[in-house]
Amino acid sequence: MSRTYVGMPAFPRAAARATEDATLRSNLRRATHTIRARRAQAVAELADWEELRAAAAAIKDRTLRHLDHYLTLLEENVTRAGGTVHWAADADEANRIVTELVRATGEREVVKVKSMTTQETGLNDALERAGIRAYETDLAELIVQLADDLPSHILVPAIHRGRGEIRDIFRDRMADWGRPAPEGLTDRPADLAEAARLHLREKFLTAKVAVSGANFLVAETGTAVVVESEGNGRMCLTLPETLISVVGIEKVVPAWRDLEVFLQLLPRSSTAERMNPYTSMWTGTSDADGPRAFHLVLLDNGRTDALADRVGRQALRCIRCSACLNVCPVYERAGGHAYGSPYPGPIGAILTPQLRGPASALEESLPFASTLCGACYEVCPVAIDIPEVLLHLRERVAEGGEVTVRGVRTRVRPAKRHAVERTAMRAAGWTFDHPGALRRAQRLAGRARRLRPRRLPGPLGAWTDSRELPELPAESFRDWWSRTRGDAP
User: Which pTM does this prediction carry?
Assistant: First the structure.
C-alpha cells in the first residue's frame, strides 16, 4: 500500500525538514524557474490575456451561483447519451462506488489517467484493499507510484525527483509492476520515456477498465474533457470497455462555447503551450467507438461547504494549472509534501482547509504557509485572489467561530495565544487609538534606535528566529512631514 497524506505534521514542521534537503531545493528551483519563464513567454503572446482571465472568472462564478441547475442539466445529458451518473458525498462513498463498479466487471486491474480527485479520495489504496490493482499511466504519476511516493506538484507530480533517481526507480521497481526496465537504462530523458512507454503499452492493450478524472464537464451536452500532453490519457479513454470518471462538482461549465476560454488559458498557464497536445472529449457511449459503459462519479467531499463561504468559494474556480506553485517562494523552498495534501502550494493552502475543515493542526497551519506576496494572484488564469482567501482563513483560525464540515455545523476554538502576545496586541491597539501616545512612542523609539535588540525576548523570540528586526528611522513620518511641510499631517 502506498504512502498517504493522513497524519502528516503541521506545515511548519514539515517545511522545516524539507528546507534542509539541498537536493530537493535544487530540483524545485530549477524546475519551477524553467516552467515560470516559459509560461510568461506563452502568456505574452495574447494581447487579451487579462480579458480572458476576467471571462473565465465570470463563467466560473456564474456557474457556482447556479451549480444545482447545471449539475442537474449535466446529469440529464450524460444519461441521455448512454452514461450513468453517481453522486458521492465524500471520499469514502466515491471509493465505494468505483470499487463496486470495477468488481461488477470481474476485472482485478485498472489503468488510470492522472487524476487529482482520485488522489484526494485515496482511490488507489481503496482499490488495493479490495484486491484491485490500479496502474498509473501518466509518466510522473508512474514514477511516484513505483517509488511508493506521494505527488508533490499538480502538473509535475515527480518534480522533486532528479533524472538519476528516476532511472534507479525504473531499474529497481518496474519489474514488480509489469515489464522490467531495459538493460543498461540511462538517465537520458528520451531513454526514460521509452522505458515507460514499453512498460505501459501492454497495460493499455490488455486493460478492460479505466479510471479518469476530467478537466471540464459541459452541462449542455454532457461532455467530459481531459487535456494532457503524453497520449496516455487518449489510450485510457478509448481502449478499455468500461470508463469510470471521478470528477469534482466544481468542474462543470454551462456551455460548449465556454471551453473556448479555458482551452486558451489552461495550456499556457500549465505547460506553457499554445494548446494541449491531446484534448479528449467524450459524450456518453457509442456502439462504434470507445468504451461500452461510461460512469461519471460526481464528488462533493467538502465542495458544497466551501461554496457557502462568500470569500473562500473562489478557490472552486481553480482549473489545476499549477501556475501559482511555480511562482510561490514558499513552495519553491518547502516542496509539495509539506502541504500534506494532493493540492500543494498556494491553491492547496486555501483549498485543503476548506475541503477538510479544521480536521487537524495541519489544516489550521496551511493558511499561514504564505508570504502574501501576491505572485499567485498575478498568474492565476481564473483570477483567484489567493492572498484575500488566505487572510480570510487566517482570521477564522485566529478568531474561531462556526464552520460547516460535511454538512454539519462545527464550532472552531480560537487559536491559543500566549499571554505576552495578547498583552502586546492590546497595548498596540490602545496606542493606535490615541494619536498623542502614538506620537510619543514613535519619538521615543527613534531616540532609542541604537538599543535595538537583535532578538526579541521571551516568547516573542520565535518571530526573530527567522527574521531580522527592521532598522528604526531617526524620525517618524509625522515628524518628517512637520519639519519639511510645516504642518502636521
Answer: 0.88
